[in-house]
């Protein structure tokens, strides 16, 4: 079990790319950042970075506006 953007999910072993797909976010989308357990994961590592049970993953998108 992991926590993805505040929600528990059964996605142990999933890659960052797979988790983003679960959220409907394209791997190549601009303005997206991902942190695992409070540490930013570089975009180049998304296809190979797998999450472990208990990991907390936050996927954030920059929004324009003021």
What would you note in describing this structure?
This protein is 11% helix and 29% strand. It has one helix at residues 16-22; strands at residues 2-4, 7-9, 32-36, 39-40, 56-61. A 5-stranded mixed β-sheet has the order 2-1-5-3-4, covered by helices on one side.
Describe the structure concisely.
With 66 residues, the chain is mostly beta strands. The chain has one helix at residues 16-22, and strands spanning 2-4, 7-9, 32-36, 39-40, 56-61.
Brief descriptors of the model:
five-stranded mixed sheet; single chain; 1 helix; 5 strands; 66 residues; mainly beta
Please provide the count of β strands: 5
Residue share in β-strands? 25-35%
Strand order of the largest sheet: 2-1-5-3-4
User: Regions with pLDDT < 50 over 5+ consecutive residues?
Assistant: none
Query: Largest sheet, described in full?
Result: 5 strands, mixed
Q: Based on helices, strands and strand pairing, what is the structural class?
A: mainly beta
Order of helices and strands: EEHEEE
Q: How much helix, percentage-wise, in residues?
A: 10-25%
Radius of gyration: 11 Å
Instruction: Please tell me the overall pLDDT.
Output: 94
Assembly context of the chains: single chain
The termini sit apart by 36 Å
Q: What shape does the CA trace take? A: globular
User: What is the count of DSSP helices, taking H or I runs of 4+ residues?
Assistant: 1
